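Ticket #4471: structure output looks truncated?

Reporter: J.K.
Steps to reproduce: submitted the chain below (102 residues) through the standard prediction queue, then opened the result file.
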Amino acid sequence: MSAELDALKSIETPRFDVPPSHYRSIIAALSPALEGESKNKGLVLGGLWILDSEDREIWISLLATGNELTFSINGVVYHGGNGANMINEIRSAYFASKEGDQ
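Returned output as attached by the reporter:
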């Protein structure tokens, strides 16, 4: 899994490999979520790249709308999760990746 958080662009290259020890907490920040319509209003956070079982890269676009997180996978929009937790988890994973955490 790799991630990109727009807030990290001022630091350096925003895309980084997420240490496996952070996978569970990042995926947990996507839950619970329900399929829904795109609200198209909110803060673009960045996204996640995840490899599926056939090694195809899937882009998950992340958008924060208040405390709720909106994300899109292959054009399907979901609402739920926690935007603040997602930002914190991705930042934590970023700094852990720079320290060599696995």
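Triage note (M.O.): checked the attachment and the full token line is present. The chain has two helices and seven strands.
Status: closed, working as intended.
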